[in-house]
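User: My instructor asked us to take a sequence, write out its structure as tokens, and then describe one feature of it. I'm not sure where to start. Here is the sequence I was given:
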Amino acid sequence: MILLAAVFTPSPHHPLTWVDFFGYLLLLGGSAAALIGGYAAISTYRGLEPSRRRGQILPVTLTGGCFVIVGLAVAAVGVWIF
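Assistant: Let's start with the prediction itself. The structure tokens for your sequence are:
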């Protein structure tokens, strides 16, 4: 029983705080934004008619790329805080 309690008790040298919570929150939010932005750009490009794909590649790529870059930056801040 003591062994099980020791497994589930957080480390006393690294207690969970609000900073850790917000670090996790930023990590999850940034990762979600990056994945959703990348998926939206790919699905939008695939959903276009072949005749419109050539003209829309730049805006779709820039928009999806911005979401991915900002999402990864937010996730990196979350990892740095944690």
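For the description part of your assignment, you could build on this observation: The chain is about 85% helix and 0% strand. Try explaining in your own words what that tells you about the chain.
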